[in-house]
Every structure is written in C-alpha cells, then in structure tokens.
C-alpha cells in the first residue's frame, strides 16, 4: 500500500467547486504556471461564487485544470483537448472528449514519473518498461503510448481504495504562511514511524507542506496524530511533545 500527495492551487472558498468569491483578490493560485497563463480575472469576477456545474466550458476558471475544486459536492463536466492534437501530429485526429467528474473527485497526475528527466531512475526501478518512442516535436514528457500505460499502471498499483491517504497541498502560493515547514526530513537520525509508507505523501513536499483544516475537529486531531507518531528508541527524547505543540499552534491558525 502507498499514499499519494496531490498539489492544488489556493481557493478562497474551501475548494468547493465554485469560482472564487473574489477572484481578483486571489493572486496566490497564479503561482502555478498553467493558471497564470490562463486566468482571466475580469471574466471570473463576472461569475464569482457560481457553481462549476452551472457554467459553460468557456466560463470555467483556470484552476479547473489544477484540481481547484477537489471538495466539490456536485458532479461537473470538463472537455479535454489533447495537448498534442495540433498540426500534422499523429494526435491531430483526436477529438475533444467530455469527462464527468463525480463529487469529491480529482485528477492524479504523476508528474515526476512521466518526466523525461526521471526516466533513467525509473528504468532502474522498473527494468522491464517498454522503450519510449521518439516524439516528432520537442517535449519534456514521456511520449510513447505503451510506456505511458506501463508507468501509470505501476504508479497506481499499490494505491488502495478506502485505505491509502491522499495529502492535498499548496506547493507555493497561499495567504497564510508562504514558508510553511511542518515536515522537513533533514536530520541523519529520524525517529518517526513510516508504517506502510505512511509519510510517503507527506514528506514528498518537504518544506512546502501546508494543512488547512476547516470546521472539522476529527480531521484536525487525526492529522495531528498521524504526523506526530514516532518511535524514538535510540534517544528517548521528547520530540513528539515539541512537534505536537508546534503543530497545534500552526493548525489553530486555520481551524
């Protein structure tokens, strides 16, 4: 079993599947490149607070492509246009495809696994992967169909429904603490338990991890318990108590 982390942009209304209440006052989401290129503040102001499922495709906000509504309690539709469907490419014949997302759903995109920069390391981890195909245009991503499918299947293999954790985080761009450092594995001796890869999703983001807990005391306590578990049999010190105090102070800002 493994856990995953999912990057999301900042949203001013609980990521609830609506356009921000004050889009012009949310520059934080624009720290993500895809949003900064596409966000039309004037248009979003026109539909401020509107449910995504009540809008046409050309009225949806830029963050729809960055999981900006992962706490949406309503289904909504999104039209996908393949990024390689242009000019004389083999993908040019692909037509736009409509996908309906169920409530509280998101897209999990393993950026690192699909980056060409990571392929040498990935080949050592999974030596039987198919060779990649040569793309007919410049790209930073794995191009070949077979290799893409194999990588995605390996990535999701140990994700278990009802058991695996999904950690949502803002990598950068938030109005609370731009330098949030709740989990940073920087010491040679690290006594916290990593039962069943519990911290895989948490420690991946290291210095930029930010938890926002809104009106949910159970979730608040659960997160605090998870990230303060430890097994300090070597030094018998009070790291857990110190970290708990720090986290309680941090979490109270958002609780």
Provide a concise account of the structure shown.
By secondary structure, this protein is α+β, with helices and mostly antiparallel strands. The chain contains eight helices and four strands, in the order βααββαααβααα. It has helices spanning 33-38, 41-46, 111-114, 119-125, 145-156, 200-203, 217-226, 239-252; strands at 4-7, 76-80, 97-101, 166-169.
Question: Any descriptors?
Answer:
alpha+beta; 25% helix; two-stranded parallel sheet; two-stranded antiparallel sheet; disordered C terminus; 8 helices
Describe this entry's structure for a reader.
The structure is a single chain. The protein has 255 residues and is of the alpha+beta class. The protein is 25% helix and 7% strand. It is built from 8 helices and 4 strands; from the N terminus they run βααββαααβααα. It has helices at 33-38, 41-46, 111-114, 119-125, 145-156, 200-203, 217-226, 239-252, and strands at 4-7, 76-80, 97-101, 166-169.
Shape: globular
- Determine the structural class based on helices, strands and strand pairing: alpha+beta
Q: How much of the polypeptide forms β-strand, as a percent range?
A: 5-15%
Q: Order of strands side by side in the largest beta sheet?
A: 1-4
Number of helices: 8
Instruction: Please write the string of helix (H) and strand (E) elements.
Output: EHHEEHHHEHHH
Q: What is the makeup of the main sheet?
A: 2 strands, parallel
Distance between the termini: 30 Å
Estimated radius of gyration: 20 Å
Estimate percent helicity.
10-25%
* Overall pLDDT: 76
Low-confidence stretches: 180-207, 236-255
Number of strands: 4
